[in-house]
Amino acid sequence: MHITECRAEDIPLLDQCLPSGEATSFHARRFARQTAGTSTYLVAWSDTHRPIGHTELRWTGCAAEEVRAAVLACPEINALLVAEPLRGTGIGTTLIHHAEHLASQRSFRRIGLGVDPDGNPGAARLYTRLGYRPTVPYLDRWSYTDHDGTEHHQEDPCVFLVKSLGALRGV
């Protein structure tokens, strides 16, 4: 497995191998933010050159106002996904470590991510094991349009977790 920043030519294969069920490309929107310089969209690739996971490192931090007020200057790991049959094999951990390294290279002192501990207890356990600590509860609000043209609005209770990056910089 190896990890790269998403390229424009990766979008069709991402849409095919890791579909989101949305009418517009989930991956293209993340790539557009990367192109604008507000994020880095990381893709995990198998040895057979197929995408098997992804995450977006949002340099501007979490979109939720309550998180931004409580946690300043903290990039967010967002939309972490590993292909269903490969979960639990270390791909998510590797993507997180890669994102942490990129944030540390940009001299960020910490990094964060959101999780619904009740809805995704496996992810919550992983993040705790990796050193992320609960900081602020919030509602993760997002929307998407499905292939039938119906717009869906989601609201998930989450906790924003933060990890110090001091050890990564040798501090």
Overview of the structural elements:
The protein is α+β, with helices and mostly antiparallel strands and 171 residues long. It has one domain: 3-Layer(aba) Sandwich (Aminopeptidase), CATH 3.40.630. Helices cover 28% and strands 35% of the residues. It is built from 5 helices and 7 strands. Strands 1-2-3-4-5-7-6 form a 7-stranded mixed sheet, sandwiched between helices. A hairpin with a 5-residue loop joins strand 2 and strand 3 (51-58).
Determine the structural class based on helices, strands and strand pairing.
alpha+beta
> How many helix segments?
5
Q: Which ranges are low-confidence, i.e. pLDDT below 50, for 5 or more consecutive residues?
A: none
Helix content: 25-40%
Count of DSSP strands: 7
User: What general form does the structure show?
Assistant: globular
Give a topology summary.
Blueprint: E1 2-5, H1 11-17, H2 26-36, E2 39-45, E3 51-58, H3 65-70, E4 76-82, H4 91-105, E5 110-115, H5 121-129, E6 133-145, E7 151-164
Parallel strand pairs: 4-5
Antiparallel strand pairs: 1-2, 2-3, 3-4, 5-7, 6-7
